[in-house]
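Annual report, structural modelling task.

Input specification for the zinc ion complex:
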Amino acid sequence: MTTSPPKKNRPTATPTRTEAEDAIRTLLRWIGEDPEREGLQETPQRVIRSYDEFFEGYNQDPLDYLSRVFEEVGNYNESVILRDIRFESHCEHHMVPIIGIVHIAYLPNKRVVGISKLARVVNAYARRLQIQERLTAEIANAIHTALQPQGVAVFIESDHHCMTTRGVHRPGVSMSTSTLLGKYKTDPALRQELIAQIFAPRTAFLR
Ligand SMILES: Nc1nc2c(ncn2[C@@H]2O[C@H](COP(=O)(O)OP(=O)(O)OP(=O)(O)O)[C@@H](O)[C@H]2O)c(=O)[nH]1
Ligand SMILES: [Zn+2]
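The model returned the following structure:
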């Protein structure tokens, strides 16, 4: 599977910031607007600053976040599960938001990672142009490569704005994807237990 290319490996030369802002002026004219009217004069700069945030993942190496591991885990040998990690991405077909949640589980093999780093990995891949299937697989593969755990599972549920605000206009449709690696794939009982844990009702005090 191809992964989203980091900025430094991009096949085409990076335009200057001014060229990027000019492209926004072109789009403003395309939709019938006057880029010189007062309210729009600074919009190209604002849009490009927004792009810096939306697509910051191209400047991040997710494996860096997983490089600090902890090995003093006692004999902990059960799943580590993070549920409901919110993410914001953009679909690569229409460049409009995909908003959803990721659930991550891994079965450690003597090594664990700081839990915030898993959310950072999600961010590093989500803040690129994506399709959900690839986002799911990339998160799972990164954890698998970095931690070499006994198993990894990633579940994503999301809302694709390209289906709700345009095109087929179907609000309320959610897309679910999953990537299961290692024991979660090969051991049906473990998988079933995991799915029951991940999709169990949330404890009231954690809401
Ligand atoms: N598999 C997959 N499809 C996606 C994802 N995000 C958006 N899409 C779909 O990508 C497809 C692109 O289809 P095209 O026919 O090339 O584009 P389009 O003419 O804009 O299609 P419509 O959205 O049906 O109007 C659409 O069916 C989208 O719903 C995603 O994460 N995964
Ligand atoms: Zn789309």
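The beta strands are 69-70, 80-91, 97-107, 112-113, 129-130, 151-160, 175-182.
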